Amino acid sequence: MKYTKTKAVLNQLVADLSQMSMIIHQTHWYMRGPNFLKLHPLMDEFMEEIDSQLDVISERLIALDGSPYSTLKEMVENG
Ligand SMILES: [Fe+2]
Description:
- With 79 residues, the chain is mostly helical.
- It has one domain (4-66).
- It is built from three helices and no strands.
- It has helices at 4-30, 36-63, 72-78.
- Helix 1 packs antiparallel against helix 2 (36-63).
- It is elongated, with a radius of gyration of 15 Å.
- It binds fe (ii) ion.
């Protein structure tokens, strides 16, 4: 099996970044306070950047004949 270590590291990134995106999303929804109008859209930017990175990493995994985590269960179990 080729690139075993690389695929494991990339898949760990998929799980960790997916959980990070979910945490930022939660922050986006529940934030309150005087800086709301500045910070609320900033969370959108962070999520877009993370989602873009997730796409690149997952497509690289596919190119290496890997299987990127794609279910909530996998993200929780491996994040
Ligand atoms: Fe929003």
